[in-house]
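ingest -> validate -> predict -> emit
validate: passed (alphabet ok, no gaps, 244 aa)
predict: started
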Amino acid sequence: MSDPTYPPLDVLKPVAFGLWIVDSGPIHAAGLPLPVRMSVVRLSDGGIWLHSPTRYDAGLHREIEALGPIRHLVAPNVAHWTYLKEWQRRCPQALTWAAPNLRQRRPVRRAALRLDRDLGDEVPPEWSGDLTQVIVPGGFGFREVAFFHAASATLILTDLVLNLEPAKLPLVLRPLMRIAGATAPDGRAPLYLRLVVRLHKREAARAAAKLLALSPERVVFSHGAWFDRNGTGELRRSLRWLLD
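emit:
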């Protein structure tokens, strides 16, 4: 049986100074098994910032707390919030930050998820010395907040790039994912998301240009093989559907 994940799972993996990732999963989206990834940043005030928290694990929690106190839980788009509630319960001192339109989603309201602050175009003072952010808009309420960690020259995305390795996918799904444009080495946003973002193409293209202007050395995202080198070139290739 194929395994889409990147073991070891639910442990800290160093990326650069002040930046780690946590690979987890699989999760299932419309029947597709997906790897999922959290990014962990240690801010200059010593606090820990969790981007798109993955499933809660007590050992992982202890590992992260050894780096510093967890102060921020970030839901970077309207789809990545599922595991927040358990992290909130275990980290009551942490603020939860919501992507635009997340609090309006019916499943979020039904789950009674606590959302403390909304993310916007302005960088919050809590991390303005460490991270910049750019909102990429789309139709049907879609918004993704992209973050740039200046100290490591790393761009942190969520679903704007899907780069699934075919060998890790079920055989029957490989051609479908290739047609959808979501497989390595030429991963992009999946077809449905490209259609959604194109509904606000002018604004989204401006946001994409801002991301490229940051000149990231690496690009981390939630699903698939992330770009550990030549980040700006890989990002330009992945976003060509929006920039052309």
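The CA atoms of residues 48 and 190 lie 30 Å apart.
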